[in-house]
Amino acid sequence: MNTPRTPGIVGDRLPGDELANNFSDLHAPLAGHEAAVAADRCYFCHDAPCVTACPTDIDIPLFIRQISTGTPHAAGKTIFDQNILGGMCARVCPTEDLCEQVCVREVAEGKPVEIGRLQRFATDSVMAQGTHPYTRATATGKTAAVVGAGPAGLACAHRLAMLGHSVDLYDGRPKAGGLNEYGIAAYKSTDGFAAAEVDWLLSVGGITLHTGKALGDDLSLDDLSEKADAVFLAVGLGGVNALGVEGGDKDGVEDAVSFIETLRQTDDLTTLPVGRNVVVIGGGMTAVDAAVQSKLLGADAVTIAYRRGRDAMSASRYEQDLAASHGVKLLFNVQPMAVHGNGAATDIEFEYTATQNGKLTGTGETVRLAADQVFRAIGQTLTSDGGLNLEGRKIAVSGRGRTSRTGVWAGGDCAAGGDDLTVTAVAEGRDAAMDIHATLMG
Amino acid sequence: MADLTTEFLGIKSPNPFWLASAPPTDKEYNVRRAFDAGWGGVVWKTLGEEGPPVVNVNGPRYGVIHGADRRVLGLNNIELITDRDLQTNLDEITRVKKDYPDHALIVSIMVPCEEGAWKAILPKVEATGADGIELNFGCPHGMSERGMGAAVGQVPEYIEMVTRWCKENYSKPVIVKLTPNITDIRKPAEAAKRGGADAVSLINTINSIVSVDLDSMSPHPSIDGKGTHGGYCGPAVKPICLSMVSEIARNPATAGLPMSGIGGVTTWRDAAEYITMGCGNVQVCTAAMTYGFKVVQEMISGLSEWMDEKGHTRIQDFMGAAVPNTTDWQYLNLNYIAKAQINQNDCIKCGRCYAACEDTSHQAIAMSADRTFSVVDEECVACNLCVEVCPVENCITMVPMDAGAVDPRTGKTVEEDYANWTTHPNNPSATAAE
């Protein structure tokens, strides 16, 4: 049995029962009584700000009223009509930046209606029925290829299947789900929820899942376009930006997304190694997820190092506080200079930064942190663009996800525009499906 | 510090908060707890005639209308009068009165509509030393089917007759409790007065079925698959009772008849309102049944604080103060013109005022792209709906227009003088103002 202070990158730092507790639900599901009390607080606003703030436009006042009148299945249906991944979004949405931020009770009392947890209550109640709430329209004879079985691809495939189209859904990994399965923090998707949600979603029928097929490696856009009447690309961002500093290739320097992916696919977390001193470089949700989970695995000291100030972090204040509450130290205005160590990392050296004339520059002052494990969480990149026009480093789209190539749509993180959020990806997949449908049936 | 003691029909009590004749006052144990908790008076749960007592159902007796957070808004019951032996009750009343001489103790009675029955029970009640009696002419279920309770209260002649028997056979004050299940509350009140009643108390419960169980298709509360109407009380009935109290207070035939107000008294404020409408005290049941006897502490402190703020030293100082301001619709001032005003600092932008006005009223609230809600004076008739649906109290208010200003809705100048429907040109039976 190791301890948090055991040197190096080792497993077994915490007992199994403590790990199980650490990785249980971040927000416990609402019991029936709690849901009733929470639902009573909704004012049923006119043209409600929460709906406007939701990328998928869920009719939040309506579903909450349906909960409060004792019809949670109807509430769930209201959610799924707009967002078929409403179950996952209830768990991972940064509601503090979306619906709950603009709730009038947040304005009035600093305490919003608990929309996220109520959404989970409603969607869980539907999924617990064990049946799928939607049926498919009469077969259209049209086919679609959806590449990438993450939130955008799943939402698109489901909507197309509902509309009567036949869908082939491809994903490069062994399992469908994308970041829901491989990316987000484990305590946001417990008990295999991501996989269960995929199974439930696919049970609508009409979707054939092909795993282990990635765009560029196993699939070409030309072939897909030839075989299918429409193609939707939702391949996400598979690459990770390099660190580009001296010693950046030493042992112990890893991608945060790989660490999270391994963690999500590890059944016995006592076997998962983690450093004694962990430093995560980055300022987004991935950085927070990697840092908090390192701490929960038993790392002794965990630091998030971000090159700008707190306000510039893309992780929400809520997420920053979540990290801090788990004992993660937040270090701002530092940029990595070098990773030191003889073969394996032992220290990381940062230079403090300042913004001058709108440009980030080093101040010359440096700081060294002990670091036997360093996670890069400095952004992901598109790995295969299929020869489509790009906007910045993402696939350029217009309207409801149309790319530069006729018959090819794109959405989710790989497409330009929109926040890189699960809920945004769902909206883009859904909307592209409606545009594909209109085009195919036109 | 205001003096809350009351002397109702000469019966002294430390405060105007009495417990109504109901389940909370069925036994010595409960009544002692009530007095110890601070209640000023108790009307003992209704006694029946000697002999085998009535029986109650052994299934659920209550049903409720809930508000948000399961607040009890309306309570329905199908319980009957006391199901305990008469002598047991009389012995307990005697003991309690002896131990609490400074608290009011009234005995509620319901026996068949025969003089002999009343003559039999009244001396026994008199012997307990209780301060007075209340005639239960209101119970709307069970007993009324046997010719008692509301069956008497719905026939003014019976009220007068029985009241007279009681006055002839009992030396202390007689209060007649009225049923609201009639068309004009003034008639039974007049009958009680003619019979010599010292006071009326109102209201007893209202006929009600609170809900239907959609699985069993039975009214709730359901007794083995069947339900029946019960008596409705609680905060939801307060407006009905307050109106009835006002009618008795304004009726020349009954004006000045002492009243005990019953119906949905939940806070000190409800009690104060009943007293301003002419009641000498109030009787409470549902609030106690919901929160326990301790709730009287808030009623006492709240009434005391408000009286101090207003400079009232005794209950009599404001008793009946709202009666002169209670009038018929036709006498309301039609030259009084107000407009809604939204305080933008308090507005939380929920838009309920907009939805209510736009969908169901006068399209007098405008909504901007940034969710600023403002009143359209050209359309506002000052209906008050926006005020009432706004979640933030006092965020929207009704502001009267000054005389001489032009109402943008009608284009007419606001008149200074009072003018009502009786002289309005649109009234076919208007009498020209002299």
Structure characterization notes:
The complex is a heterodimer of chains A (442) and B (434). Helices cover 35% and strands 19% of the residues of chain A. Chain A has 442 residues and is α/β, with parallel strands linked by helices. The N and C termini of chain A lie far apart (65 Å). Chain B has helices at residues 28-37, 86-99, 115-126, 150-153, 156-169, 186-194, 238-250, 268-276, 286-291, 295-310, 352-360, 385-389, and strands at 6-8, 11-13, 17-19, 41-47, 62-66, 72-77, 104-109, 132-136, 174-177, 199-202, 206-208, 211-213, 218-220, 230-233, 259-262, 279-284, 338-342, 365-367, 373-375, 396-400. Chain B has an 8-stranded parallel beta barrel with strand order 3-4-7-8-9-10-15-16, surrounded by 7 helices. A 4-stranded antiparallel beta sheet of chain B has the order 5-6-14-11, with no helix packed on it. Chain B has a two-stranded antiparallel ribbon with strand order 1-2. In chain B, helix 3 packs across helix 5 and helix 8 packs across helix 10 (295-310). The radius of gyration of chain B is 25 Å and the shape is globular. The model of chain B has no long low-confidence stretch (mean pLDDT 96). The chains are: A alpha/beta (442), B alpha/beta (434). The interface between A and B is medium-sized, with 14 and 14 residues.
